[in-house]
Amino acid sequence: MDTSRSYLEPSSFSKKLAATIIIVYTVITLIPISWMVMTSFKNVNSAISYPPEVLFEPSLEGYVNLFTNRSRQSQEYLDSLPAPETWYEELVRSREMVITGPSKFLGRYSNSMIIGFGSTFASVFLGALAAYAFSRFRVPLKDDLLFFILSTRMFPPIAVAVPIFIMYRKLGLGDTHLGMIILYTVVNLSLAVWLLKGFMDEIPKEYEEAAMIDGYSRLQAFFKVVLPQAMTGIAATAIFCMIFSWNEYAFAVLLTQFNAQTAPPFIPTIIGEGGLDWPAIGAGTTLFLLPVMIFTIILRKHLLRGITFGAVRK
Amino acid sequence: MAKIELKNLSKTYNKKIEALHDINFTIEDGQFFVLLGPSGAGKTTTLRCIAGLEKIDNGSILFNDEAVTEDQPASRDVCFVFQQYSLYPHYSVYENLAFPLRSPMRKLPEGEIKTKVENIASMLKISNKLNNKATQLSGGEMQRVAIGRALVREPNLYLMDEPLSSLDAKLRESLRVELKNIQTNLNATILYVTHDQAEATTLADKIGVLKEGHLVQIGTPEEIYENPNSIYVSQRLGSPKINILPGTLLGMDDVPTFGIRPENITIGNGNHSAKIISIENLGSETVVALNFKDQEILVSIQGNYKSSINETINFDINNEKVLKFDQEGKRIYER
User: Domain spanning B4-235: which superfamily?
Assistant: First the structure.
């Protein structure tokens, strides 16, 4: 019998059990995602074939269709054209079509980027300032204000869609980047304030007091000493805010049509010949997944660093 | 360095709890001033008021005869060594030491910062740790860096809030000696807070004794020890503790209480007799506890003392060293 382990350490059986559960969960979670990625590399026929094809010949048709607008032409017309110059033109020609121009996807995608990162930055920045104030200063009616901030999340945001729609039309904020950034920031802000306040409370006020005595103003001390130590909380908050504003669908459908439309309402509108172009939709969702994934991976090391938080003895 | 004056300083927390009451004292330029008192006496609050971290309700604070009462902490140009949470954990030791010099108020050139940091580091024997993260230091090293961060600039005043209390005994002693040497060499003005009497007597030029927000006595360590103005002050200094006994024990019916320090009692001959309760040999001295008319009296004897418990012996009290106190514990001075 192995008697060397400490009483506090879990037994090897429970470790194995935990690992098994995690692996099973991961596999279940990954099935739809990997199916989506696979679909993006299929051609239109193999994407809808029955029984579903697990092994297939990979094709970039989905990605080409995602980024281009095409029109079907007669064989005589295609023959009269000069030879295709690029591989994607050739691919489109083989489907008896020609490229008529770029699709709107890139524009929608960059709208998502601008609005997603813009509102994440605004929520975290404003949230950090508010959380610091709530954590350090004697704010009149502090508890009531904090409850009020929390209460803005007690109903689904879409419940106020109609007033916001009317308000945005009157203010000229409909279908603008600024309007969407403000909207997502407002929705995320309560979460940001509450999350960050917890982290700010954990930071001993001696640090910024020391900085203030060392010749810095309170605001300088906040940026030099408090913010770096709140990195863990900022990373966690940023990920939550980013995921919300990146994935948000309902408001985006309601408030944006052309100028500021984000990717989520755009992707389902991709229609191919004779129905939905599943490889193109797969390609769109795969590309749509990437930024949040990369963002989370980059910030992950700050999340892990939370374990070693604090350099001083308590 | 500067001369620091506190005039009628009062501070109340939340309009209810009185932390400081009418505090008046002056720290001369180059003086090592120690505030002594148990926790809750208002020592730290005094430091925080001087540093500008707390707003005061009444009175004024003067640096070199100029009022700084309304100034921001940064512009008062003082240093503060905290009891704990002393280093910025996200910086290296070098960055921690350079931080005050990089302040927008000073804006020293990088070369000058480097020289200053390296000088301080070698003085505090932490040169080999400059590139370490603050989190990778031992408790003693952390506190030395914290003291170094204060010493790296030449402020009006150093404020130190029990800087050695979180260290082990050996380290505390060596840092205490180091600190006194540094202070003498730099001719620094230091206001130091402690509840440790050994630190107070070894470091201080002057001691101020605080009791529940009142400054009850100021004097040199000798004055506080030899000539305390109350029972409270007499109990702050001295180890083993002063004996506080009813006056009737010595036939002084007009004196409610008197105090006599253990080293002012001699054993062997004398006109009182008592039973030995315990003998504690501390090496250089021996502390003997006596039962005298149902009162415990501690006696300190130089060197070793051979006797046994429950033995009855004679002892004598040095009457010149008897401190008499009235009903409220205030000193009764002989006319």
Answer: P-loop containing nucleotide triphosphate hydrolases (3.40.50.300)
For residue A211, name the pLDDT band (cuts at 50, 70, 90): very high
Considering its fold, how many domains does chain A have in total?
A: 1
Residues of A in contact with B77 (CB under 8 A): 215
Domain boundaries, chain B: 4-235, 241-325
- At the top level of CATH, which class does the domain B241-325 belong to? mainly beta
- Position A312 scores a pLDDT of 40
**Residues B257, B46: Cα–Cα separation, whole Å:** 32
Sheet holding B285-292, edge to edge: B295-302, B285-292, B265-281, B312-317
User: Chain A residues with CB inside 8 Å of B151's CB?
Assistant: none
For residue A135, what are the domain limits?
106-269
Cross-chain residue pair A212–B88, CB shorter than 8 Å: no
pTM above 0.90, yes or no: no
Rg (CA), chain B: 24
Helices (H), chain A: 12-40, 44-48, 61-67, 75-80, 87-94, 105-136, 142-151, 161-171, 177-202, 206-213, 218-221, 227-229, 231-247, 250-255, 263-266, 278-305
**CATH number of the structural domain spanning residue A182:** 1.10.3720.10
DSSP label at residue A157: G
| Percent of chain A whose pLDDT exceeds 90 | 57
Helix (H, G, I), strand (E, B) or coil at B193: strand
The most distant pair of C-alpha atoms in chain B lies apart, rounded to whole Å, by 74
- B89/A214 touch (CB, cutoff 8 Å), yes or no: no
Residue of A nearest to B153 (CA): A214
> How does B292-314 read in b/e, with b if 16+ C-beta sit within 10 Å?
beeeebbbbbeeebeeeeeeebe
What single-letter amino acid sits at B86? S
Helix (H) or strand (E) holding B137: none
Tokens (6 digits) for B4:
């620091």
The answer for residues whose C-beta is within 8 angstroms of residue B81's C-beta and 6 or more apart is: B146, B147, B149, B150, B158, B159, B160, B161, B163
Tell me what the mean pLDDT of segment B44-59 comes to. 92
**Closest of A207, A204, A190 to residue A131, by C-alpha:** A190
Binary contact (A206, B85; C-beta < 8 A):
yes
Contact predicate B313/B249, CB 8 Å = no
